[in-house]
Amino acid sequence: MAKSKRVLFQLECTVCRARNYTTQRNPDNTKDKLTLKKYCKHDRKITEHREVKIS
Ligand SMILES: [Zn+2]
């Protein structure tokens, strides 16, 4: 597959729902929604962030 289809995602804090990070990846690689442990500057601690599709 030479096509690279990239989709923008934001990572939303599951605690305060702030969208702290923007990322992009190929949705064909991973079908599942990711949850990542990331630092939230609003909560000022590591929280779970889940992917939110932008477009
Ligand atoms: Zn937060």
Q: How would you sum up this structure, described in words?
A:
The chain is mostly beta strands. It has a single domain, classed as Ribosomal protein L33 (Rubrerythrin, domain 2). It contains no helices and four strands. The protein has strands at 7-13, 19-25, 35-40, 45-53. It has a four-stranded antiparallel β-sheet with strand order 2-1-4-3, with no helix packed on it. β1 and β2 (19-25) form a beta hairpin. It is elongated, with a radius of gyration of 12 Å. The mean pLDDT is 88. The structure holds zinc ion. Zinc ion is lined by residues 13, 15-16, 18, 40, 42-43, 47. Residues 13, 15-16, 18, 40, 42-43, 47 line the site of zinc ion. InterPro entries: Ribosomal_bL33, Ribosomal_bL33_sf, Ribosomal_zn-bd. This is Large ribosomal subunit protein bL33. Keywords: Ribonucleoprotein, Ribosomal protein. It comes from Candidatus Curtissbacteria bacterium RIFCSPHIGHO2_01_FULL_41_11. One of its GO terms (molecular function) is structural constituent of ribosome.
Give the gist of this structure.
This is Large ribosomal subunit protein bL33. The chain is mainly beta.
How does the overall form come out from the CA principal axes? elongated
Helical region count? 0
Q: Strands across the major sheet, in which order?
A: 2-1-4-3
Summed over residues and divided by their number, the pLDDT gives a mean of 88
The SS-based structural class is: mainly beta
Termini separation (Å)?
23 Å
CATH architecture: Single Sheet
Order of helices and strands: EEEE
Ranges where pLDDT stays below 50 over 5 or more residues in a row are none
Our estimate of the beta-strand percent is over 45%
Bound molecules: zinc ion
As an assembly, this protein is single chain
**How many domains is the backbone divided into?**
1
Instruction: Please count the beta strands (DSSP E, at least 2 residues each).
Output: 4
Q: Biggest sheet, open or closed, and with what strands and sense?
A: 4 strands, antiparallel
The CATH superfamily appears as: Ribosomal protein L33
Tell me roughly what share of residues is in helical segments. Answer: under 10%
CATH C-level class: Mainly Beta
